[in-house]
Amino acid sequence: MRAASATHRTTGLKNRIAIFQGHPDPAGRHFGHALADAYAQGARQAGHEIRQIDIARLELPLLRTREEWETLPPPQAVLEAQETIAWMEHMVLVFPLWLGTMPALVKAFLEQALRPGFAIATAPGGRGWTRLLTGKSARIVVTMGMPSFVYRWYFGSHGLKGLERNILSFCGIGPVAETLIGNIEACGDAKRAQWLARLRALGRDAR
Fold this sequence. Notes:
- The chain is α/β, with parallel strands linked by helices and about 210 residues long.
- The protein has one domain (about 15-205): 3-Layer(aba) Sandwich (Rossmann fold).
- It has seven helices and seven strands, in the order E-H-E-H-H-E-H-E-E-E-H-H-E-H.
- The chain has helices at about 30-45, 65-70, 75-85, 105-115, 150-155, 160-170, 190-205, and strands at about 15-20, 50-55, 90-95, 120, 130, 135-145, 175-180.
- The strands form two sheets. A five-stranded parallel beta sheet has the order 2-1-3-6-7, sandwiched between helices. A two-stranded antiparallel sheet has the order 4-5.
- Helix 1 runs parallel beside helix 7 (about 190-205).
- The longest helix is centred in the C-terminal third of the chain and has 17 residues, at about 190-205.
- The two termini are about 30 Å apart.
């Protein structure tokens, strides 16, 4: 079944926002958790509707074949996440950069959730794909040990571009904005407070 398309957001209207925490540590306590909570706080203060999903707390078996991806029913936790994805107008995905890209757990979640029949469908005539999640925007928030400009300019943001172009845009989600937070281990309290304030502001504006 095709997911319900979200109404395009208009200035003055409240928005439905889904925040996906992508740090693989289910214990929390990382700066990425504080960033997601700051975004949610700002959004709630502005009257937006919020749902939060901690990917590390979901039961996520790996998909190992194309047949499983196309025909195996998703587990209950993924079905509930799909309901949130269908409901949302704006997605916020927060994760640490691991080996130049998203952690494996985030990729496993996206493979489970963005299935044929929900996120994409075969185009008429069997040529190509139809995007089923149009009308939804996204922001990706990534923390990393290296300076963010090194990741962006030297490494070309390769892993991030793959997520944006080959996964989110492929399903129709866009535009996709980025917040890259570098030198995370060296960030002092003042710098972290600035980033938390920035995320609260983005939440208030549903951006």
